[in-house]
Design brief:
Blueprint lengths: L1 H19 L18 H10 L9 H6 L9 H18 L5 H9 L6 H11 L4 H14 L4 H12 L1
Helix pairs in contact: 1-4, 1-7, 4-5, 4-6, 7-8
Length: 156
């Protein structure tokens, strides 16, 4: 069973890699983080600035797992596959950083946060959204929150 899970994690990682293969890094004029004054944002900027998403290591992802939400929309789009691929390849579906990926791909209830969520999603093309739908499908359990995430992505 464990080898089947590993094979599934690798297949999912390959699906995400293929979907984001042609992603281009945003211009250096685009801010990497929402606020560059917070210590966590400064560390995130130092860790990721100017780096290709495919060059991001699991250690980088692990150290930044709480900070996925700090990326500006364009950099969230650009670096999200690194968080998914590295975590699947090294840790598998039960690894902590994927909880933050799932949370970042789960729609808020309403208001400005929901509008921002939709703005972020609008940057993903069809192939990328399809790959993210597979990620959500594999990550979600049976909780109400998970069910809402699955329902959103099934209809998006």
């Amino acid at each position: 069973m464990a080898s089947e899970d590993c094979d599934g994690d690798d297949a999912l990682a390959e699906l995400v890699e293929a979907a984001f293969e042609s992603s281009k890094m945003p211009s250096s004029e685009v801010p990497l983080v929402e606020s560059d004054e917070l210590p966590d944002s400064i560390r995130l900027s130092r860790r990721f600035s100017g780096r290709d998403w495919k060059a991001i290591s699991f250690e980088d992802v692990w150290l930044s797992r709480f900070d996925l939400c700090r990326f500006t929309d364009r950099y969230f789009h650009y670096y999200l596959p690194a968080f998914i691929v590295q975590t699947l390849r090294v840790g598998g579906l039960e690894t902590d950083p994927l909880d933050f990926v799932q949370s970042s791909l789960t729609p808020p209830d309403s208001g400005e946060d929901y509008e921002r969520f939709l703005t972020r999603l609008s940057l993903f093309d069809r192939e990328q959204r399809d790959a993210l739908r597979e990620v959500i499908s594999d990550l979600c359990g049976d909780s109400e929150h998970d069910r809402q995430a699955r329902e959103f992505w099934d209809s998006y």
